[in-house]
Specification:
Number of domains: 1
CATH superfamily: GHMP Kinase, N-terminal domain
CATH class: Alpha Beta
Strand content: 25-35%
Order of helices and strands: EEEHEHHEHEEHEEH
Number of helices: 6
Number of strands: 9
Structural class: alpha+beta
Radius of gyration: 18 Å
Helix content: 25-40%
């Protein structure tokens, strides 16, 4: 019997992906990315300096760091800002570290020179998959920002060695599903986030049973499903950048 999802997608179908460039004109590169109803502004800003710890330790090259936040009105019930609580919550720290690791996995920091690439991901609307949308959009924002460095001849070679994208998968109602929305994610028996390069190399696989266990076969099914979705996301990224860089 065919699986019926809340938004009528088939199990291996991504939500509609939308991309809008230059949403934040003061950033070096920016993209508003939509995974269905999940919408995230991803902005990349380049500073012509590196963190003090790099100088103190004699580390050559540049650096990339990421910050992530969910705006108070991004969820059904208002989400208080971290500053109002006096500290960053654990989930926020985890996600921004994941975004940073994912981007650094495809970035040659030596070729970046003495620059810091700041990645800011701000969730405007959350309907599941905010971290995966953030990673997928952050790569695009970073690539647009780096093009400005190349055009200005501040670096001589593109430091990005590959693209990177991310997608969620999970088991919901006994079925393996791609790109979970909030309804599916909150009640999934198993959920996973998979980060992969355009060349098909894994950067990170986060998977857990939610009050449940899962078999090796189920994990293989989920990873296979994620790879299918990530190939599609990579193609979308490639087409978007070809169009944007042609304009530049």
């Amino acid at each position: 019997m065919p699986v019926t999802r809340s938004d009528s997608r088939h199990p291996a179908q991504l939500r509609p992906i939308t991309l809008e460039a230059n949403i934040a004109p003061h950033a070096s590169g920016s993209v508003l990315i939509g995974f269905g109803s999940t919408r995230v502004i991803c902005a990349a800003t380049i500073e012509a300096k590196v963190p003090s710890w790099m100088k103190q330790q004699g580390v050559k090259g540049g650096w990339l760091t990421a910050e992530y936040s969910m705006l108070p009105y991004s969820t059904l019930d208002r989400k208080p800002r971290d500053i109002s609580k006096g500290k960053i919550d654990g989930r926020t720290v985890e996600i921004q570290r994941l975004i940073g690791r994912s981007l650094r996995a495809v970035l040659d920091l030596q070729k970046l020179g003495e620059h810091t690439l700041w990645i800011d991901c701000d969730v405007l609307q959350a309907d599941g998959g905010t971290r995966t949308a953030s990673i997928t959009g952050a790569y695009l924002a970073a690539r647009l920002a780096i093009q400005k460095l190349l055009d200005a001849k501040k670096i001589i070679e593109n430091p990005l060695t590959d693209s990177v994208a991310a997608v969620s998968v999970g088991i919901f109602g006994g079925d393996a599903l791609l790109d979970l929305n909030y309804v599916e994610d909150k009640d999934a028996e198993v959920d996973a986030n998979v980060v992969m390069t355009g060349g098909g190399q894994f950067v990170e696989v986060q998977s857990s049973g939610e009050e449940s266990t899962f078999s090796h076969e189920q994990l293989e099914t989920l990873i296979g499903l994620a790879k299918t979705g990530l190939q599609e996301l990579t193609a979308i990224q490639t087409a978007f950048l070809a169009k944007q860089l042609l304009k530049a």
